[in-house]
């Protein structure tokens, strides 16, 4: 196993996420907590994932589902897209990220905008919302000189394409 932290920081995991996961020290920022939660999925440190949930996030937590996802996924990487606040001394923060993984050989990406709060110096995960791009339209483009699809018999440019 590589010593590089799975969170993508480029650091050795013992100098990056492992001290947070082991409880040696708290994550200093919302982004550090996000990275350590990703690493916890990779290392299957499920107790850490639960321990870093805000009380209001506990209602939706399902130990079995978390275990199954952590164990069945081949974790491929984490990309942090943006952060808002979430620094030392802040009360709250948001981190937008993509977690890449494969299940049964099929690569997938989970993109989320996560909310965090600082509870007496300890960052906690509050909630997350899936982020997706604009819908992809795969309609055939009608050429200007093609017959109009309305059935008028005219060229598209002389009919509905005006």
Can you put this structure into words, describing what you see?
InterPro entries: NTF2-like_dom_sf, SEC_C_motif, YchJ-like_M. This is YchJ-like middle NTF2-like domain-containing protein. Pfam families: SEC-C, YchJ_M-like. It comes from Pseudodesulfovibrio sediminis. Residues 29-128 form the YchJ-like middle NTF2-like domain. The protein is α+β, with helices and mostly antiparallel strands and 162 residues long. The protein has one domain (13-133): Roll (Nuclear Transport Factor 2, Chain: A), CATH 3.10.450.50. The protein contains four helices and four strands. It has helices at 18-21, 30-43, 46-51, 63-72, and strands spanning 74-85, 92-103, 106-119, 122-130. A four-stranded antiparallel beta sheet has the order 1-2-3-4. A hairpin with a 2-residue loop joins β2 and β3. The longest helix has 14 residues, at 30-43. It is elongated. The model has no long low-confidence stretch (mean pLDDT 91).
Give the topology, please.
Layout: H1 18-21, H2 30-43, H3 46-51, H4 63-72, E1 74-85, E2 92-103, E3 106-119, E4 122-130
Antiparallel strand pairs: 1-2, 2-3, 3-4
Keywords:
YchJ-like middle NTF2-like domain-containing protein; Nuclear Transport Factor 2, Chain: A; 162 residues; 4-stranded antiparallel beta sheet; elongated; YchJ-like_M; alpha+beta; 4 helices; 4 strands
Briefly say what this structure is:
21% of the residues lie in helices and 29% in strands.
Top CATH class: Alpha Beta
Shape: elongated
Strand order, sheet with most strands: 1-2-3-4
Report the CATH topology name: Nuclear Transport Factor 2, Chain: A
Sheet-strand content, in percent, reads 25-35%
Number of domain modules: 1
